[in-house]
Amino acid sequence: MEKFLSDKSIFFRWQTFWLLVIYFAIRLVSYFLAEHIIIQGILVFFILMLLGILYFKNPEWAWYLVISEIFLGGSGHYLEFIGLSIRTLLIGFFLFLWIAHHLGQREFFQHIKINKQLICILTALFFFLIVSMVNGLYHEHEFIQVVRDILPFTFLFLIFPCYHLFKQNYTQEFLARLIVVFIIGTAIFSLFTFILFSAGITEIHDSFYTWYRDIDLGKVTDMMQGFFRVVEPGHLLVVPIILLITSLLCRNEKHHYMWRLLQLLAIIVLVLNLSRGYFLALIIGLLILKYKHQWWKWARESATVIFLVIIMFSGIHLAASNGSSLGWDLFGLRLQSFTNPGIEISTNTRLMILPEIINLIKQNPILGVGLGANVTFINTATYETMTTPAFDWGYLEMWTEMGIFGALTLIILYAFVAYMLVYKIQKVPNWHDFDVGLLAGIIAFLVMNITIPALFHVFGILYLIFAITIAVKYTSIFEQTTALLYRIFNRLKT
């Protein structure tokens, strides 16, 4: 095998350990500095200074800092400065430096040249986004909400530096290491949070819960019998990660035990999250994995995933309830609410909101009512009038805010990436598992977006960027991808 990489394992290094330490350290620091705005501002200033120094030393080093914050920084709000999150400031400053660096060079247009069709779709999308932003301000939506709605889309500009910097071997290795640390760290932190509440060490509305809700932007819900739903924004990546790992395991060869461990850890996060949308996306994604895989291997791996979901949920619920219940009634209730939404509070609330969303769409189905929209509805359980920016209907929220053409353009963007992945899979002679896994992840996001704002969530956009970077690469790099994946847990044999 060609020696374009070192022969060492990517994961089993000291850097992995320190990245995992940083994962938990930044959460600890954020918790204790939640009320100390000035100290947060000072830290953000020094981190931005560090980004600038790293960029002028080597742009790749600055890129490592940005993607490290993305995978290790949870919601991205662990540190803030004048109301802006550290993630927004890091990405914005990096893009400013990258554009300023290349704008004066003759090769600038080469750096933004990726794919003509992709550029056309992105241009159309940003046109409709600008119209929606102006429309939102025209309808007197809160400025801060308009900004929050458009911010995730601005991260799409990372496509250009990501496409070019991803060519570097060490960048690929570092990203692989970050993803593995993300899976391990997320599973441990989710379990830690679950145990805190299940064991009664901490309670709803205490200081940790407040930090978890307001800073980590998570949610903890008491499902009774000692079981608590633990939800974080980063969990949006869990289903695509499970699908990607499962696709790799569908290849008929001996796999390192760590792949099974990562799959199990991701499933633990999934069952603690207990989102119906995630489970539906997982089932549809598993069906997509049949593409280009042997039937018996696909059936075995898909059944393994479903079996692990049931076993892990039952085991955790049994432990949380002190051995009194396997939780199948709760699990069945969550699944039954697909066909009978009125039996479950959250799905019933979603039905209350639906007529009001339709009324908003009717106001202007072509251009929408603009970004930053709220929906007002009457809660039939309490007869209170409630106003919320959370529509709980992803596609309808897109239509409401961006209009029919803006919503369709965003869907077309995801569909185009799916098409490019299919095209690439057809061209690859035999090693297609990684790209099939990415394709299943794209489909999973399209499914999750039915009830969750997945397509225009920060992590949805970041997954899209990663998928685009892979999809538009030449098919000749599949040998490098094979070696990279092999080396995540193995040494190259000489």
Characterise this structure.
The longest helix is centred in the C-terminal third of the chain and has 34 residues, at 394-427. The protein has 20 helices and 6 strands. The chain has helices at 14-32, 37-57, 59-72, 86-103, 108-111, 116-138, 143-154, 159-165, 169-198, 207-214, 238-249, 257-273, 276-288, 295-320, 328-336, 345-363, 394-427, 433-448, 458-471, 478-487; strands at residues 80-81, 84-85, 219-222, 228-231, 375-379, 384-388. By secondary structure, it is mainly α. The chain has a domain at 33-110. Helices cover 66% and strands 4% of the residues. It has a two-stranded antiparallel ribbon. Strands 3-4 form a two-stranded antiparallel ribbon. Residues 1-6 have low confidence and may be disordered.
